[in-house]
Amino acid sequence: MVLKTAGRKSGKGKIVMKEQNFKIEGMHCAGCVNTIEKAVLGKKGVKSAAVNLAAASAKVVYDGELIKEEDIIKIINSKGYKVFAAGKTGGRENKDAQMKRLRRAFIPSVLLAIPVFAISMFFHDVFGAYTGVVLWALATPVQFYSGFRFYKGAYSDIKNASPGMDTLVAMGTSAAYFYSIFLVFAGEHHFYFETSAVLITVILIGRIFEETAKQKASGAIRGLMELAPTKTVVVRNGKETEVLTSSVMKGETAAARPGDRIAVDGVVAEGSASVDESLITGEHMPVDKKAGDRVMAGTINTRGVIKFIVEKTGEDTVLASIVRLAEDAQASKAPVQRFVDRVSSVFVPVVLIVSVFSFVGWYFGAGAELSFAITAAVSVLVIACPCALGLATPAAILVGSSIGANSGILVKNGAALEITGKIKYAVFDKTGTITEGKPYIKNIYVYEDLSPDDLMSKAAGAEKYSTHPIAGALSAYCAEKGIAVSEASDFHNFAGFGIKAVISGAVYYVGSGGLMKNEEIDISAAADDMRREENEGSVFVCIASQGKLMGAVSLGDKIKEGADEVMRTLKKEGVKPVMVTGDSSTAARKIAAECGIEEVYAGVLPGGKADIIEKLREKGITAFTGDGINDAPALSAADSGIAVAAGADIALDSADIVLMRGGIKEFLKAYYLSRRTYAKVKQNLFWAFIYNVIGIPVAAMGMLNPMIAGAAMAFSSVSVVLNSLLLKKLRQHDLNV
């Protein structure tokens, strides 16, 4: 039932909304979606409710102080639907049960509909005067046993004042069935029992095909959920013991042998191994693991034996987080779906009106026979298909997000999957996005009386608690050279400029020339060195103390493989690449020129990135791609915020899309996935609309047999899902990556 809970009351008077996903059974068309959304949104405390027909789920954001989870469940259940508990396999078990119920209704339906059809079409005299009674007897179980689900659905529709697909089917088949009974008592010899029986059978076939296709569409996510092993080897009382994964506790020591699939997240404590992380990152080359490295649930130990300390289990693992993100995306609505929902809300009432006018026009206006007028009205009712409209967008989003999840592209919402492929500006942060984000020390400059090692010791000590890549480079250099890092205190971070810290009673500043200028420290001694290094594309970091420039270091960072190719491809697609960075203009333009980027914003503070994004958005749809370090404002400001992650780092709340593999080529993969998915959405909507626009008038003109109309209606829903499944044919080369 609840797949995710995000938020709670965090302080007196401060409201933090909860976000939960509910799995729902019994939805068949867009009318069901509208009914549930209207009911839930009408309750105090509910901020938003998005129901997804293809995923059979509802995503609800609400204030837990005003309305409880149980209240939402009662509201949905009261409308004739069922919210079921979704454990690890709950959703699958429910879908299997639903398929069994469909088959139980379909088998007697088809066994009885075949003789009804044969007698009506070819052997109508075989039972003489009793033919009508025999057909009546054969058609009745089909109408009220196999067709009971339609009457039940129609009752809920009427009770909720929201007529949907079931209402149309129930009314259409009932009209044919009860008119045939009238003809039996009237002594007539031509009946329409075959119309109602075959209609119900055909529609049930369509439901089975549709359910099968939807299960295939969501199969990728179910497959991910089932990859975590149910048993794990742990070390207890000095012995390795195989236990249920659900019993493993944080802090325990687990072991993984060659061929084992790891069931929990942890940090390697002993041994070495090669681990296949393709499930998480999409990278198929095994990654070597040693003491201190992280391992994740769902990955496979291909070689070696390791013991690791358990950090996360169950719903807290990276694998579980990936599944949650993918399910959130499937439960959310793309912007185009809002328009479809508005159309769907009036669709069935309009169809009912057209059906009535068709009957009145033919019978009273044109003087046609009653049987012909009823046939035309029934055809209108059964050919209309709100299901196709309701499935057009969510089916494509469901398949697209599943493909992404299995390719290391985590799409957090349907809107991102729709809009990313329509961008006009692609803005990239430099460090960690265009470059590797692993700067290394190129040169050390000393301007006062101290050794290079002493300078580096002080610089690394001041940067010790910083998360910036430059701090990592300083620390790595000291570790490699065996330099002891100075102890420091009283740290202060100047966002976008650098660090201040106290070492041995003296204040040290480590950062850009801008920081030195703000602190009124003369850096003229480094002017030539700075100019030369920045012309080569290096980052120049100054180290000062007691008002004097003590020294400086230059840092290089490799451009990611394929960055120039990505920029060329974007330009061909009509997308303008833009780079923003806090580095100096000279160094930034050097890197940009190597990648083929003309528009560069340098010396930008973290908050300034968001301002640049806002200005670009005024010109066109804009995506921002960054590594998540100080990028939250820009990620939030963009139409599509894309975070470059690595391994376990997927909890980037500000991002709409997370690229697990971290390569800049993955941006193109996400871009083309979005384009292909939205193309499927447009194809689905076109066929759904054109089908109804053509089919309903043809049926109203009396040119369509109800059985053919019913078959066409069933096929329209199935075709939308099958067309969406064609996205699964995409391969890496199809995405131009």
Strand segment tally:
24
- Give the overall form: elongated
Low-confidence stretches: 1-13, 85-90
Beta-strand content: 15-25%
CATH superfamily of the largest domain: HAD superfamily/HAD-like
User: Could you please say which CATH topology of the largest domain applies here?
Assistant: Rossmann fold
The number of helical segments is 25
Radius of gyration over all CA atoms, rounded: 32 Å
Tally of distinct domains: 5
Gap between N and C termini: 38 Å
Q: Given this structure, which CATH class of the largest domain is correct? A: Alpha Beta
Structural class: alpha+beta
Overall residue-averaged pLDDT value: 82
What composes the largest sheet?
A: 7 strands, antiparallel
Please, could you describe this protein's structure?
It is a single chain. The protein is α+β, with helices and mostly antiparallel strands and 737 residues long. 49% of the residues lie in helices and 19% in strands. Strands 5, 6, 7, 8, 9, 10 and 11 form a seven-stranded antiparallel beta sheet that branches. It has a seven-stranded mixed beta sheet with strand order 12-24-23-22-13-20-21, sandwiched between helices. The protein has a six-stranded antiparallel beta sheet with strand order 14-19-18-17-16-15. Helix 21 (585-595) links the parallel strand 20 and strand 21 (599-601). The longest helix is centred in the C-terminal third of the chain and has 36 residues, at 665-700. The protein is elongated, with a radius of gyration of 32 Å.
